[in-house]
Design goal:
Strand content: under 5%
Order of helices and strands: HHHHHHHHHHH
Shape: globular
Number of helices: 11
Oligomer: single chain
Largest sheet: none
Length: about 290
């Protein structure tokens, strides 16, 4: 438990204080604060960046909570299960913020009747649950629209997969189909984050307009060169997201065999990296605003 706890604390610190905070301060915030100053290609990269930022921030605080709890003798369940591997929006909500999605399923969706009263009531219950999920994040129309969009996407997937294609509800595509399913789901997810991040609908429209009308790919090589450390961290976040689970088990075994000394060295290394990239301002967890 000690080795696993130290591992999750280190991973959570790195996700939050290195990946999330660095790409936010040095790229993502600049794009979202003044989208008209950037080309559509830069806006798209900013949207990718925010998707990685919010995952690293949310899962980082969850990992730290799980790690600290293990050091105190308590085992908490995992809260994020590689959500960028999701092959549909239904699959995404089984992987993203599992504590919240499970609570909504158990106490709203199922309490309303779930799928026990026919398909159309199932879709209605799903829409109500996801709309309330959006409203739970804040009394803003942006969050409501975000919740409605996710509800619609989940309903569309269920209708297409279970009603049209006659798949079992536990079905997952394989091979090339899975590749394109994951790719499409990721990009749809990124677009829905616009309503979550932007302050108002005008900002969402400006971002979409820049994305469609002023893409200007010729500037992208300079952007990659100018923000190389940002994109290196974004690539690192995505690559580690896809690493096999047994890699994590191997690292934990190293901490287990090395004892307190190895854990202390690893923690010192992470703190040193954080000191190199941190800004003078304290960056609160995104989730603290909800």
């Amino acid at each position: 438990m000690f080795a696993t706890g130290v591992y999750f604390i280190l991973i959570g610190l790195f996700k939050k204080a290195v990946i999330s905070d660095y790409i936010s301060q040095n790229f993502v915030d600049r794009i979202f604060d003044n989208p008209t100053l950037f080309s559509g290609g830069e806006v798209l990269l900013g949207i990718y960046g925010y998707c990685i930022q919010i995952y690293s921030d949310f899962s980082g605080y969850s990992d730290m909570a799980i790690g600290i709890s293990l050091l105190l003798g308590f085992e908490l369940s995992m809260n994020f299960n590689a959500p960028f591997k999701a092959d549909s929006m239904s699959d995404f909500w089984r992987r993203w913020h599992i504590s919240l999605s499970t609570w909504i399923r158990d106490y709203i969706y199922i309490s309303l009747g779930g799928n026990r009263r026919g398909k159309w009531m199932m879709y209605l219950n799903q829409m109500i649950a996801m709309t309330l999920c959006g409203l739970w994040h804040g009394a803003s129309l942006n969050f409501v629209v975000w919740g409605v969009l996710h509800g619609l996407l989940v309903c569309v997937h269920k209708f297409w997969s279970q009603t049209v294609l006659k798949h079992d509800r536990h079905y997952h595509p394989t091979g090339v189909r899975r590749f394109f399913s994951v790719l499409i789901t990721f990009h749809v997810l990124c677009l829905t984050w616009l309503f979550f991040r932007c302050k108002d609908f005008d900002s969402v429209w400006v971002m979409l307009h820049q994305l469609v009308a002023k893409f200007n790919p010729s500037v992208l090589p300079d952007v990659f060169a100018g923000y190389k450390y940002v994109f290196m961290l974004m690539v690192l976040a995505l690559v580690t997201h896809w690493l096999p689970d047994n890699w994590q088990d191997r690292i934990i075994r190293v901490f287990e065999k090395g004892g307190v000394l190895v854990s202390a060295v690893a923690l010192t290394a992470i703190i040193f990296i954080i000191m190199q990239v941190k800004s003078s301002d304290v960056q609160p967890f995104i989730y603290f605003q909800f």
